[in-house]
Amino acid sequence: GMLGERDVERACAHFAAALDKGFGGAKFRHAQCIEEKEPERALALMREAADAGHVGATERLGRICLEAKPPDAACAFARLERASREGRPGATALLGRMYAEGIGGKADPARAARYYREAAAQGEPSACNKLGELYERGRGVDQDPARDFDYYLSAAVTGFPPAQFNLGRLYANGRGTEKNLVEARHWLGAAANAGVSPARQLLDSL
Questions:
Q1: What angle do CA 160, 166, 171 make, to 5 degrees?
Q2: Cα dist. 202→116, 150, 170, 173, 189 in Å?
Q3: Tens of pLDDT along 50-91?
Q4: Which residue has the higher pLDDT, 18 or 22?
Q5: What is the pLDDT of residue 84?
Q6: Inter-CA distances, 44 with 61, 93, 100, 192, Å
Q7: Considering the entire predicted model, what is its pTM?
């Protein structure tokens, strides 16, 4: 949308034209355009882009491996670790998730917290939310209601729905902050509008 109205279809046509003319940098973007209609072709292009050094493609491949049924932990770790080293906070947060959930090995919440903290410092909202959950439950870190509130707030103000739900829940219960039903309804409403069903249930009960 930098040159006018956002137009994904037109953008994808340009990425396809660039790819046809041999511009390797278009592989990642074109792969994103055809992921739903041509998943195998998209995956092949994504691999080519990643192997050529495209860090966004590397992270995307790591996520694909992680979300496979069952997860391909070795593939996910190799791709995400590489993307994390190259400064992708989203990849760092996903590494935290692997350690938090024990994907590919034994769960290690303390190590997960370190990855989440690194990604949160770079402004990754999912990492802030997950770090808040660790502080709330005392997993891998000391339980600290004030800190989990702060991390949820940091993620919620960016528009991240799971954090908006968690923040609304804390306001509703008066945990880590003073009870405030006005704020609770505000954040739970935002999460519910984004499709977080537990937020709607809690909102209805207030």
A1: 120
A2: 27, 21, 11, 11, 10
A3: 999 999 999 999 999 999 999 999 999 999 999 999 999 999
A4: 18
A5: 98
A6: 10, 25, 30, 37
A7: 0.90
Which tokens sit at 24? 């390797």
Question: Using CA atoms, how far apart are residues 132 and 129, in angstroms rounded to an integer?
Answer: 5
Specify the pLDDT at position 25: 84
Judge whether 52 and 35 are in contact, CB under 8 Å: no
In sequence order, what are the residues at sequence separation of 6 or more whose Cβ sits closer than 8 angstroms to the Cβ of residue 54?
A: 25, 27, 28
Handedness of CA 71, 75, 81, 83 (dihedral sign): negative
Q: How many angstroms separate the CA atoms of 74 and 105, rounded? A: 10
Q: Which amino acid is located at 41 in the chain?
A: R
User: b vs e for 183-203, b when ≥16 Cβ sit within 10 Å of the residue's Cβ?
Assistant: bbbbbbebbbeeebeebbebb
Residue 26 to residue 16: CA distance in whole angstroms = 7
